[in-house]
Each structure stands twice: as C-alpha cells, then as structure tokens.
Amino acid sequence: MPETHQEIKEAKAKMDKSVEALKQELGAIRTGRATTGLLDVVDVEVYGQKMKINQLGTVTVPDPHLIAIDLWDKTQMATVEKAIMASSLGVTPSNDGKLIRIPIPPLTEDRRKELVKVAGKYVEEAKIAVRNVRRHAIDHIKKAQKAGDIPEDDAHHMTDDIQKVTDKHIASIDAAFEAKQTDIMEV
After folding, report:
1. For residues 37 and 67, what is the distance between their CA atoms, to the nearest angstrom?
2. d(CA 82, CA 66)
3. Alpha helices (H) along 47-151
4. Overall domain count for the chain
5. Neighbour-count burial for 55-83, b at 16+ CB within 10 Å, e otherwise
6. Quick check: 20 and 124 in contact, CB under 8 A?
7. Cβ atoms within 10 Å of 54's Cβ, excluding its own
8. At residue 23, does pLDDT exceed 70?
9. Do residues 49 and 114 share a domain?
10. Dist. CA 15–CA 126, nearest whole Å
11. How far is CA 5 from CA 13, 84, 151, in A?
12. Phi then psi for 73, rounded to 5 degrees?
C-alpha cells in the first residue's frame, strides 16, 4: 500500500508543476499594465551565458504604464535593449544612459480578445497535461491491481483519489484563467 500512496503523491506533484507552468505562461501575457513579470520571458546573452534581466539589474514599475531597468553594469544597456526588442513582448525600450525605460501602451479591444484566446490555449494545454498525468496514474494502478499487488477496493479508492486531485487542479487552472481574463479585459 505505501507504493500506492506514492503513485498519488507523484501524480499530484506532476499536476502541481503543470499548474505552476501555466501560471508562469499567463504571467508573461501582457495586459495593459506594466509588471516586472513581463520581462521574465526575456533572456539576455551576457558574459557568455543567458541571464534574466532581473539578474542584471533592478527592475521597477514607477507607474502602471512604465517599466524601468537600472542595470548594475551600464555597458550592457545595448545588449539588454536588443534582447527586449527581439522578444515577443512587442515593446520598444529607450535609455538615457542610466535607466532603460519600457513604455507599456494600452491595449486595443481586439488585442485584448486575442490575448484571452492565447491564454485559453495555454489553459487547454495545462488541462491536457493534468489529464495525461491522471491517465498515466490510473493505468499504473490498474496494472498493479491486475498483477495482484493491490486489492480491487484499494485500486478503486486510489482511482477516486486521483480523480479528486485532478478535479482540484482543473479548478485551480480555471481560477487562474478567470483571473487572467479579468486582468486582460480590464481597461
């Protein structure tokens, strides 16, 4: 029986990772407001390796439509600017020699609807990942039952437990989507 509880724990951990990955993807979707999380998708090639912008300087949001980056090494400004422009963010940074400023323009209604569709696609991928984990765990339980490793009643209870964990994660995914949708559509 300890092995069976392990199966549920592993399934839960994998589902948790899917939900976490979704939250990161949703965080990278640009709303009309500036957040430091927008830059999490940008990798900068400096010092012979890829680094995140928040590892190269201080990222702040002085107002809802502006992100400011104060780099510790000012010689990297051009490199960071190029990386931001090459990213999928669709923003144009500018610098005054001290700070890199990224204005975040307000979104059009059509663009907002488009972003909700993109978020919906991420949500569907996360749900599929969670369901695949459930299917794999239930298959594993059925094999163990057929092999005689666990009694039928225990297998049934475990399958129910896996389904409860799945339902909880799907609800969490839906809640994350609902929050992001509200955030995107808010003017």
Report:
1. 10
2. 18
3. 77-86, 109-146
4. 2
5. ebbebebeeeeebbbebeeeebbeebbeb
6. no
7. 14
8. yes
9. no
10. 9
11. 12, 46, 14
12. -110, 100
The string of pLDDT tens digits covering residues 56-106 is 999 999 988 899 999 999 998 999 999 988 887 778 899 898 899 998 877
pLDDT value at position 1?
A: 43
What SS3 class is residue 66? Answer: strand
Give me the residue label for tokens 């990224």.
102
Same-domain status, 20 and 53: no
Q: Report residue 181 as tokens.
A: 């949708």
CA pair distance 69, 100, nearest whole angstrom = 5
For residue 134, with 0-12 CB atoms within 10 Å meaning exposed, 13-18 middle and 19 or more buried, which class applies?
buried
Nearest to 76 by CA among 86, 66, 84, 65: 84
We report the CATH number of the domain holding residue 124 as 1.10.132.20
Residue 116 predicted with pLDDT over 60: yes
Structure tokens at 58: 């201080």
**Does pTM top 0.85 for this prediction?**
no
Q: What is d(CA 21, CA 154) in angstroms, rounded to the nearest whole number? A: 32
Residue type at 99 in one-letter notation: L
Residues 92 and 147 in one domain: no
